[in-house]
Design goal:
Blueprint lengths: L4 H18 L1 H15 L5 H9 L10 H13 L2 E8 L6 H17 L2 H14 L2 E10 L7 E8 L5 E3 L13 E8 L1 H7 L16 E19 L4 E3 L12 E25 L5 E16 L6 E5 L1 E5 L2 E5 L6 H19 L6 E2 L9 H5 L15 E2 L2 E2 L4 E2 L7 H18 L3 H4 L8 H14 L1 H25 L4 E6 L5 E6 L7 E4 L5 E4 L11 E8 L2 H18 L3 H11 L6 H11 L11 H4 L2 H34 L3 H29 L3 H16 L8 E3 L1
Antiparallel strand pairs: 1-21, 2-3, 2-10, 4-5, 5-6, 6-7, 6-8, 8-9, 11-12, 13-16, 14-15, 17-18, 19-20, 21-22
Helix pairs in contact: 4-6, 8-10, 14-15, 15-16, 18-19
């Protein structure tokens, strides 16, 4: 424990008040945005006056569709965590295992829901959150695991006001607030101070999870054997080892505590009064195995005015346009529904005997209306008829359409992105409008990727501490394949390792040791592997339509890319119908060449080596003859004879190779497969890197 209980509570109450004061305006505006998104889009006074006059207050909520568009754009570009070695102690094999473990943790704990909730909070209220928690793998297990945990209510989080990073990676403390009924609190924490408190009210108990980073001054030292650490952890120096460097530093640990309190009224600025929790007891505490606080923030738009930061989403700036749209659409509806209906006009005496029925004809629907025929000047008068109703004023409809356009302009989301018909007529114009919408709201996706990168680094930092023991873990590959791998595994038989001086030692090396080495994290954004597979299938089908022969030579690969039951069996059957020269697979090139041809090619290669050696000897003989010759004519004659011999040897080699080369069809097959293998790109997730 950092200090005694009272010191912890005093500091926590001080920090909570500071966070509440600094973020009060953001929380107020965010709450108003969420209420507006829910459908409360009329000013309270205007709504109250109109309802008193029994006038309608229509709410046409367009923001739900806009919010879904932002969140669903992010869903189509899922962030993917990739791990790479960062120092000499790390290895590529362990990096792949860590990456697979991270992907498995994401899948098991439904990290996609956490990402979606955080982006939805950022787009609606201006900020959203998710976090990491540790828990036992099951009720009967002693092994702990890391889990993603979504924070559904963004207003429940209060972060350190001194944090400057958009992902809040530099915060020193934060609070996550919840509440618990007093009766339930007494059952779960019977010994707590608030459980024994004599109170007459049954108000809920305020519960907060309090994260804080605690630092303790220490001295960092570097030893002559290459190791470094804190001086307080060093019991004694190993024999022959000295201290090379030292500098002042500090030990850092992240603490988690659960505090209980109750709400009190506190006076704020401008004679305002607000509720503030006052904590009375520390219920639980533990150390978090991470270098950072595992609470991650995703923001929308950020504006800093003289140190006062304002966060907002797509709701904030479009509320006035939405109110205007609701008013004019309500006015148009009211113009039609609340306008008195025009009366029926008939000759005098036509309504006699049916006056009450005709009197209610404006408010009731009768199956028939009776009247008395009436003649005027000997001519039968026409039946009673209603005067035509005037149309809705065009100005009202124009203002409603103008307000609708203003909502689109402020949010940056137009009809083309929503799948609705707009003013664009050509495909290019529609695509340009969609691209404009995507770019105007891309910062939500980009902010998420930045936060996921920080979360991935925290995850890689926590895995060696949580998964420190020997165990078998599940890993998920980049192609969504599931496998298992041992980590921190000690082999039963020591391995022989040769040192630089030539000596061989038996070393007990740990297999897949995730506790050593440093690893870095990057985030790639793009379609998932299933989406890429679907795109590949569509491209194959399109190519098969334009080039039908593709199914004759590669139909098995086309069917294999289809994700439906029985595709693998059908692919195998199609493969059997493909000619052998076209179904060479990886590692089968040598099997396709007949043994006789391979033997002839080997003999030819050996004979070529012998000829090259003879050629070198002949050239050496020429050099010796040149030195020993007494006349230029003798030298020239010897040289010419040697050149003729060389040409004859070259001709013999060419004839021999031509007689031994494989059939043209087989040669073309081998060369095409070789070219295919040489040009094939490495498999992996496609997308854009977010560094």
């Amino acid at each position: 424990m950092m200090a005694n209980k009272d010191d912890i509570l005093d500091l926590a109450n001080e920090r909570f008040k500071a966070a509440e004061t600094a973020g009060r305006e953001n929380r107020k505006e965010a709450k108003d945005d969420l209420e507006f998104l829910k459908g409360d889009q009329w000013p309270a006074d205007a709504k109250r006056m109109r309802e008193a006059e029994q006038r309608p207050c229509l709410t046409i909520n367009k923001h739900q569709a806009f919010l879904r568009q932002v969140v669903n754009d992010q869903r189509q570009n899922r962030p993917a965590i990739h791990v790479h070695p960062a120092n000499d102690g790390a290895s590529k094999e362990v990096a792949l295992i860590l990456e697979g473990m991270a992907r498995s943790i994401e899948y098991v704990s439904k990290a996609d829901i956490c990402y979606d909730t955080a982006v939805q909070g950022a787009a609606s209220a201006g900020f959203g959150f998710f976090r990491f928690i540790t828990d036992y793998e099951s009720e009967t297990s002693f092994d702990q695991v890391i889990k993603f945990d979504r924070i559904r209510n963004p207003l429940a989080v209060r972060i350190d006001p001194s944090s400057k990073q958009p992902d809040a990676s530099d915060m020193n403390w934060c609070f996550i607030e919840s509440s618990m009924a007093r009766s339930e609190f007494k059952k779960e924490y019977p010994n707590a101070e608030l459980s024994n408190e004599q109170v007459e009210t049954e108000d809920d108990i305020v519960i907060v999870e309090y994260y804080s980073i605690e630092r303790k001054a220490d001295e960092l030292i570097q030893l002559s054997n290459g190791e470094s650490g804190f001086k307080s952890d060093l019991i004694e120096l190993p024999f022959g080892v000295t201290i090379l460097k030292r500098r002042p530093s500090y030990k850092r640990k992240v603490m988690w505590r659960k505090l209980a309190g109750r709400e009190t009224k506190v006076s704020g600025s401008r004679s305002s009064v607000f509720s503030l929790a006052e904590f009375k007891d520390v219920l639980e505490e533990t150390e978090i195995p991470c270098h950072y606080i595992p609470v991650f923030m995703v923001i929308g738009s950020e504006v800093d005015i003289e140190g006062e930061v304002t966060y907002s989403g797509i709701i904030r700036d479009s509320k006035d346009s939405a109110r205007m749209y609701n008013f004019w659409m309500t006015s148009a509806t009211e113009e039609v529904s609340m306008r008195p209906k025009t009366p029926y006009i008939g000759a005098e005496g036509q309504f006699a005997g049916h006056e009450e029925q005709w009197r209610q004809a404006n408010i009731r629907s009768f199956s028939y209306l009776e009247y008395k025929p009436k003649a005027i000047n000997g001519i039968l008068a026409p039946p009673p008829s209603r005067q035509p109703m005037a149309d809705v004023p065009q100005g009202v409809l124009q203002m409603a359409m103008h307000a609708s356009d203003e909502i689109k302009a402020v949010t940056g989301i137009y009809d083309a992105s929503l799948g609705a018909r707009g003013n664009e007529t050509s495909g290019v114009a529609i695509g340009s409008r969609k691209q404009q919408s995507d770019l105007s709201n891309f910062h939500y996706t980009d902010n998420l990727h930045r936060t996921v990168r920080h979360a991935g680094q925290c995850l890689i930092d926590m895995i060696p501490k949580v998964y420190s023991g020997e165990r078998i873990v599940q890993i998920i590959g980049r192609d969504d394949s599931i496998s298992h791998a041992p980590i921190n595994s000690k082999p039963k038989i020591p391995q022989l390792v040769e040192s630089p001086d030539g000596t061989v030692e038996a070393v007990q090396q740990i297999l897949n040791d995730v506790t050593v080495g440093k690893y870095s994290v990057i985030v790639q954004a793009g379609p998932s592997y299933s989406s890429l597979r679907e795109e590949a299938r569509a491209a194959m089908m399109e190519m098969a339509g334009t080039w039908p022969k593709l199914m004759d030579v590669a139909g098995d690969e086309v069917v294999k890319a289809m994700d439906w039951p029985g595709a693998a069996n059908i692919s195998d059957r199609i493969l059997k119908t493909i000619p052998p020269e076209f179904r060479t697979t990886e590692g089968e090139e040598q099997q396709q060449i007949p043994p006789q041809v391979r033997e002839m090619m080997s003999q030819a290669t050996e004979y070529i080596k012998q000829l090259e050696q003879a050629l070198q000897e002949a050239q050496s003989g020429v050099a010796v003859a040149q030195i020993k010759a007494e006349s230029d004519q003798a030298i020239a004659a010897e040289k010419n004879q040697t050149q003729r011999d060389i040409e004859e040897l070259k001709g013999m080699i060419a004839l021999l190779l031509k007689s031994m080369e494989p059939p043209p069809q087989l040669a073309s097959t081998v060369s095409s497969d070789t070219a295919k293998n040489d040009s094939a790109p490495p498999a992996g997730r496609q997308g854009t890197q977010a560094q």
